[in-house]
Amino acid sequence: MKFRQARFEEPLIFELSRSGAHGFEFPRLGPELERALKDALDEIPEELRRKELNLPELSELEVVRHFTRLSEMNYSITTGMYPLGSCTMKYNPVLNEEIASSSKVLHVHPLQPEETVQGCLKLLYDLEQLLKRLTGMDRFSFQPSAGAHGEFLGCLIIREYHRSKGRDRRIMIIPDSAHGTNPASATMAGFEVRVVKSNRYGCVDVEELESMVDENVAGIMLTNPNTLGIFEKDIERIVEIIHGVDGLLYYDGANLNALLGKVRPGDMGFDIIHLNLHKTFSTPHGGGGPGSGPIGVVEKLVDFLPPPLVEYDEENDRYYLDYDRPKSVGRIKMFHGNFSVLVKTYAYLLRMGGEGLKRVAEASVLASNYLLRKIEKLRGISVPFDPERPRKHEFVVSLQPLYKETGVRAVDVAKRLLDYGYHAPTIYFPLIVDEAFMIEPTETESKKEIDGFYEALRNALDEAYRDPEMVKNAPYNTAVSRVDEVRASRPRTMIPSWRVYRRKMES
Amino acid sequence: MGREIPYVAPTENEIEEMLKEIGVKDIDELYNDIPSKYLLERFDFPPSKSEIEVKEMIKEILSKNKCMDELKLFIGGGVWPHYIPSVVKEIISRSEFLTSYTPYQPEVSQGILQALFEYQSLLAELLEIDVVNASMYDWATALGEAFRMAARVTRRKKILYPHYISPQRREVASTYSSGMGLRLEDYMQLEDGSVDVEDLQNKLDRDVAAIYIEYPSYLGFISKNIKTVGELAHESGALFIVGVDPSALGILEAPGRLGADIVVGEGQPLGLPMSFGGPLLGILGCRLEPKLLHSLPGRLIGMTKTIRDGERAYCMILQSREQHIKRERATSNICTNQALCAVAVATYLSLLGRSGFIELGKQILARTNYMVRKLSEISGVKAPLFNAPHFKEFAYKVDGYSSHELLRELLERGIVGGIDLSREFNELENSILTCVTEMHSKRDIDRYVSIVKEVVER
Known about the structure:
The complex is a heterodimer of chains A (507) and B (458). By secondary structure, chain A is of the alpha/beta class.
């Protein structure tokens, strides 16, 4: 495929400023409000009055043009395939955007009287019932704004569970293949992280786990299928070991796509789960957020969820918020979470239905295994950990053979893929695989598109053997050529804002 | 499979070909590594619905809401009713921004990177602080992270915060601080809205990591001695954290000029809908000092150059602070943030520009003052409760009249009159926190006031 990304030498918004230009007007105040304004300004002490304000001045068209040009220099799922492992970049249905753009979603205040927000409360209530069925959990909190935010809440709940039993357990076990957020979240909640190694099958080393677990262990955070795309084959034993010391099992839901309608984390024995609605449930990532990471728990942990929970009073056919939660770990965000993201999720679940969700899982697993079978035959690629074992929705290969033979690294091949119009896979993760390529095609890509990605990768690898320097200098067809990320973070050359830039230019 | 299942791409033929390539007879074989006891025999879930049906179903549920089009909302307290210019909606609806991931590959993501750099830069100008990160979840979580940051930087364990703070915000910050074992203690504010310096000094010992103040306060008043608070913090080796509603900063001096080391705030007033409380946008920034910068959580975008041609380009910077590199030693666990909300704010600030932004402040300030004055003219009404300049919000009460009843009377006439402070502060029984913005016309305000007058004189 030929790909040419738009290339504007688009100045910064400050550099486009024309003194005196304006892009927006407010209503005229009128004499009475003008008088009120004058009085109010006189009341504010001089040292608290704004003296200078360096904001740019542009016409409306200039603003629209500037941001439209920027958007044209941005790859997205609507531009092309985005096989980022563990990110589940599936199609974001346009329908959901339309539904969530209703005034009845956008222009509702979270502290309005309950009788005026029955629609919001019912939607949250119904969504919770669907997520319970899907995961096998007993209650959900929608407060977390992201997966990591959910992990933090989950870790606080684990800590509180042990405290409620009169003990202070400080150790959280996390596999070496886990997402970086897991250890970071556990630490934020006050835990000490102990890492359990993966065995040669790419799964948790159960013997090592057994030797680590004692009465000081609060729980384990697991991703299943894990970041290698492999289902933890000894999950039953892991659950036994952790529950054996009354520890808790936390399920990182980043990889749930493979199991929708097939396996429920609750049935495997997990006690807490977070879902990434902006991955598995098709809500858009917005260039990094907003997302949503609701937390589901089993019955014995419900008391620890933050206030409020949505309840239904059947007698009066009324939904209400229950703030009376004395054992809660406390709020982790204002109000009720990222509500408009939840609306999109609800629309997705209704649209897909049970059969649809199951097909999502199956098609994502099919796509991943198909692509792996084709890629593993390519020169320069090796498959770590039990290549014969089926992968789930994603898989990891190593470009270490290519690196050894040519000096071309995973990052170089990733950049070359951009030239062919494909976003690169996740690279250098998980950390236990050298020169890792973590690939997740998702169920919304056709075989034709997956074949196209395969061809692009094959070409890029061929080029790496024929002309390594060319690949090391890639990309060529993107808005800019390879970006100097080292310079960007060096103290002397680092520019985190226009303000700092101006100061550096002056000195 | 494939057909009739929405959004799932492979066709029957493609599935057959793919299975053949893999060398299995059906998809079930790809699940045969999962112990069969875990595989669901029956998945109990409602059946799929068509696009037409889904739209109708959700429309019906949402019809039970009353939104800003049907009610006059004089309510804030963390999320405020503001006008969102059409341009902002248009820009953040562009699917190139909307459906992109975190810009891990900067060469194909210059658009979102430059937009986020502009967000950081516009906020840095507005706050007059050097560095603002690419967003936190909301003001409350930004505050929690700021407390943790102050404790890391100073190696102290105590935080002093104002008595009049949103209870929800205080609770979030407290939950965030709990993992580090920080102690949070409030200091008093006087009837003229200023900080009770004597009380503050009594609580200010060598273990205080930071003094936090809000500007304007949760109750809308502006503390005249805010600079003194900052000076006291610095004299004792503590950091000065200032929380802002940025819509006031066309009128009020920038927190950076008041001595703030760390600034937090809520970006929602600058172009984001209320959305029943989320998504919001947490503002978090600091001075450019290595100690502070390296402890700052969240993503940061920087300006750099391309290796080959030396062209201007943007990418994520200082990633070594973050969880995907540092894991358990990271400054925070934050990964997914509120990037698209930051693009909305960048668009909003660019559109309003310097003069438009100052005008926004004037519009709000004029209406606040007008409403306070009109209410105070009614005998038996104390408005505002604090004898200080107010911006956007103010507390008032009606002598001998229950706030609960008054809010009910207003609601019956299609007005959400504010937050009942009886539930939040014991000493503010029967007081109401009301919010007025550029969305409220003089007529709306007059109507509110006339209802209060009618009720009081009844």
